Amino acid sequence: MSEIAVVAIFVAKPGREEGLRQVLEANVEPTRKEKGALQYDLHRDNDEPRRFIFVERWENEATLAEHGKSAHIQSFRSKMPDLCEHGEVRRATKIL
Questions:
Q1: How far apart, in whole angstroms, are the C-alpha atoms of residue 68 and residue 66?
Q2: What angle do CA 45, 50, 56 make, to 5 degrees?
Q3: Under a CB-based contact definition with an 8 Å cutoff, are residues 11 and 86 in contact?
Q4: 7-21, pLDDT tens digit by residue?
């Protein structure tokens, strides 16, 4: 199975930036401890402070799928409608 790269972008609703940041930050440490998590880094866009970006690397699709089932990600998903204006997750497989 091939390593999977993920870029996940979340844009906070106006005025909800710090709330979204706190919820996203809460995912970092538990995710880094998950089986198959090779990289899980949270960034804030320099030009658009409402935009947060995760750069992730996973051993394979199976470990990424398990991540999606984790309690902290399920908790985040339940809070998203109140905090997040837009979210996008892109998965990719390295070719070179």
A1: 5
A2: 50
A3: yes
A4: 999 999 999 999 999
